[in-house]
Design a protein that fits this description.
mainly alpha
Length: about 100
C-alpha cells in the first residue's frame, strides 16, 4: 500500500493544482460531478487504482493511470487517441521552451 502521509490533513484546500485536477477528472468520469453517479465506475476506478498503487508513485499518479485505464475500458478514449494527445502536448511544451 502506498504512503499517503503527504496528503493534506484539512481537505482539498491544500491540495496541489495537479491533485485537484486529478480529483476533478475522477469526479467527472464516475458521474459525481454531473449528478449521474455510477457506483460501478467508481468501483472500477478503485480497482484500477489498486492495480497502479505503488510506493514509487504519488497517489495522484496512480489515479491518473487508473483514469486512463477506465477511459480505455469504457471506450471514452482509445490507447491511440491518448498517445496522440500526449504527443501533441509534449510537442507544444517543447515548442514553448
Amino acid at each position: 500500500m502506498a504512503d499517503h502521509s503527504h496528503a493534506p490533513e484539512d481537505g482539498s484546500r491544500n491540495m496541489a493544482f495537479f491533485d485537484r485536477r486529478v480529483d476533478a477528472i475522477l469526479s467527472l468520469i464516475t458521474g459525481q460531478g454531473t449528478g449521474k453517479y455510477d457506483p460501478d465506475l467508481q468501483r472500477r476506478a478503485i480497482e484500477h487504482y489498486n492495480r497502479f498503487e505503488d510506493p514509487a508513485r504519488s497517489a495522484s499518479e496512480a489515479w491518473i493511470l487508473a483514469i486512463k485505464a477506465l477511459a480505455v475500458e469504457t471506450g471514452a478514449l482509445s490507447e491511440t487517441e491518448i498517445e496522440e494527445k500526449l504527443a501533441a502536448v509534449r510537442q507544444a511544451l517543447e515548442s514553448a521552451t
